[in-house]
Design brief:
Number of helices: 2
Structural class: alpha+beta
Radius of gyration: 20 Å
Number of strands: 6
Shape: globular
Strand content: 25-35%
Helix content: 25-40%
């Protein structure tokens, strides 16, 4: 029983480390349905940078030139973000009053 406090300390340290690692991971499903303005602010506050549009891409709005849209009947509008060696691409749609993140691809 004399080792029990040490075991509890090791378990607590392991748990806290696991929680910290999980908190640093990005759960993109939590961004779905959110306003793009809020999503962008959240990601940039966590160290993510939006990827600039390419020369031949068409921006969805002047306010957010990083959101680009394809052409054709099945085209989507998207935006990319990068942090360290990770990247994500989000699909964005225009509602009546705002831009909404609807998923990841």
């Amino acid at each position: 029983m004399e080792h029990q406090p040490m075991v509890k300390s090791i378990v607590a340290l392991f748990f806290l480390t696991s929680v910290a690692l999980l908190a640093s991971e990005l759960d993109v499903s939590q961004l779905e349905g959110q306003s793009y303005e809020i999503v962008k602010a959240t990601l940039t506050s966590q160290g993510w940078d939006s990827l600039p549009k390419q020369v031949d891409e068409m921006s969805l709005t002047e306010t957010y030139p990083e959101i680009t849209c394809g052409s054709g009947s099945m085209a989507i509008c998207s935006v990319g973000f990068r942090k360290d060696n990770r990247s994500i691409a989000l699909i964005v749609t225009k509602s009546d009053r705002e831009l909404i993140v609807i998923g990841e691809y």
